[in-house]
Design a protein that fits this description.
The protein is mainly α. The chain folds into two domains: 269 residues, no CATH class; 118 residues, Serine Threonine Protein Phosphatase 5, Tetratricopeptide repeat (Alpha Horseshoe), CATH 1.25.40.10. It has 21 helices and four strands. Strands 1-2-4-3 form a four-stranded mixed beta sheet, sandwiched between helices. Helix 1 packs across helix 6, helix 19 runs antiparallel to helix 20 and helix 20 packs antiparallel against helix 21. 42% of the residues are buried. The N terminus is likely disordered. Bound molecules: zinc ion. Zinc ion (ZN) binds next to helix 5 and helix 10.
């Protein structure tokens, strides 16, 4: 379909969606089987089963309990209606379906610097849920012919490859790989079409999410921080197209992050009579066990400027420097720009001086010291690696590298 026709339909949808519901949903709502919402719940239940069976569902009970706890603080009194799944996907995204099934992606958790920031996102999603925005979008969609439904699903799928952090063919391919590998196409098309909210609904969700944040005792300023961080991250991208388009960092493009929205939230925070807590340390403790895996996932996006930006922000508190400096080294090692070998070496060195560095730092340090002409230091690094990782699968490779250095094949 031609773009102009689609735009016209889209605008009509937004207008129609604006006034369908005036009352928030009741707690414990279950749609009657006779209504059209029952079909929407069936679809949501299917998507929920897909999420639970997905390879990237993070089933760590402690992380799940933590996110559920934060959800309950901002979603009251709907806590028992909502089920949150953390999905290990290196893109900043969150969604909440009308049946109460909700996803928070690890890319969003990696980018949050405090519990209050996560709480704002969950409050924003809760607002979409409470105000029945998905049902409004569904009803508006039903008013169109079935052929429109098919077209919008097609557009949604095409949109996944074309949007987000996919400014080059390489990056587009990595997003495509990600979606092909971990997300069923139908499921993706469903959630993408379901969560394309109107600007009016987004503004309402920001405002109501902010109210939920403050009522739960969190710092009002955290709402804008989330957007500001994402805007800054877009500016740090390796890719001109990402830098110029602003921080449309999520692949469904459901939450176009604009300076205007950040400014509105800053204004609300300035007028808020209450102060509140950020919950920074609590948040960091909750994500610490997953930090290394999530940084490793983030590197698959191959936007090294953004990964370094994330690492800088996480390192600012002085916590987890072993893990963070190791992945800073990994970022430079993969980027391979002029001077990156030296930067990688410095980062691995910094990591090796901490107590929480992954053991792999000694192997990478050894390799980098070989490349930069420091064989004696490399030997020490390899020996340290073998001593600290006696059962490593790549032990034989490191032993071979070490033999090359010592020139003593019999040892
Ligand atoms: Zn939203």
């Amino acid at each position: 379909m031609r773009a102009r026709t689609f735009l016209a339909v889209l605008l009509a949808t937004s207008v129609a969606a604006g006034s369908a519901f005036s009352e928030p949903r009741t707690v414990g709502l279950k749609p009657s089987l006779a209504t059209d919402e029952a079909g929407l719940w069936d679809e949501s239940a299917k998507a929920e089963r897909g999420a639970r069976q997905s390879a990237d569902f993070n089933s760590d009970p402690e992380l799940t309990a933590y996110v559920r706890g934060v959800t309950c603080k901002v979603a009251t009194p709907y806590c028992d209606d909502i089920r949150v799944y953390v999905m290990d996907r290196p893109v900043s995204n969150a969604l909440m379906a009308p049946n109460g099934y909700s996803e928070v992606w690890s890319g969003l958790m990696l980018r949050s610097t405090s519990e209050a920031e996560l709480a704002f996102v969950l409050g924003h999603e809760t607002a979409h849920f409470v105000e029945n925005h998905s049902i409004e979008a569904w009803r508006a969609q039903k008013k169109r012919a079935n052929v429109m439904l098919a077209v919008s699903a097609g557009i949604a799928i095409a949109g996944v490859a074309a949007t987000a952090n996919a400014p080059t063919i390489d990056a587009a391919r990595s997003i495509q790989d990600l979606t092909n590998a971990v997300i069923d196409g139908v499921y993706l098309a469903y959630v993408a079409s379901l969560f394309a909210f109107s600007r009016g609904n987004e503004a309402e969700a920001d405002r109501l999410g902010f109210e939920r944040l403050v009522a739960a005792g969190y710092a009002p300023g955290a709402a804008a921080t989330m957007w500001r961080n994402q805007i800054a991250e877009a500016a740090a991208s390796d890719f001109p197209r990402v830098r110029s388009r602003g921080a449309r960092a999520n692949i469904f493009n459901t939450h176009p992050i604009e300076l205007e929205r950040a400014a509105v939230l800053e204004d609300l925070a300035a007028k808020a009579a209450k102060t509140g807590e950020l919950g920074r340390e609590r948040y960091r403790a909750a994500i610490r066990p997953h930090l290394a895996d999530w940084l490793k996932d983030d590197l698959t996006r191959r936007d090294f400027g953004q990964t370094l930006h994330i690492i800088d922000r996480l390192a600012a508190t002085g916590d987890d420097l072993g893990v963070l400096e190791f992945y800073r080294g990994e970022t430079y090692r993969r980027r391979r720009k002029d001077g990156d070998q030296e930067k990688a070496l410095a980062a691995y060195m910094a990591a090796s001086r901490t107590s929480d560095a992954p053991v792999a730092v000694w192997r990478e340090l050894g390799d980098m010291q070989v490349k930069t002409g420091a064989p004696d230091a490399a030997r020490v690094a390899y020996e340290t690696y073998l001593a600290n990782a006696p059962d490593a699968q790549d032990r034989w490779i490191v032993e071979a590298s070490l033999k090359k250095l010592t020139g003593n094949p019999g040892s």
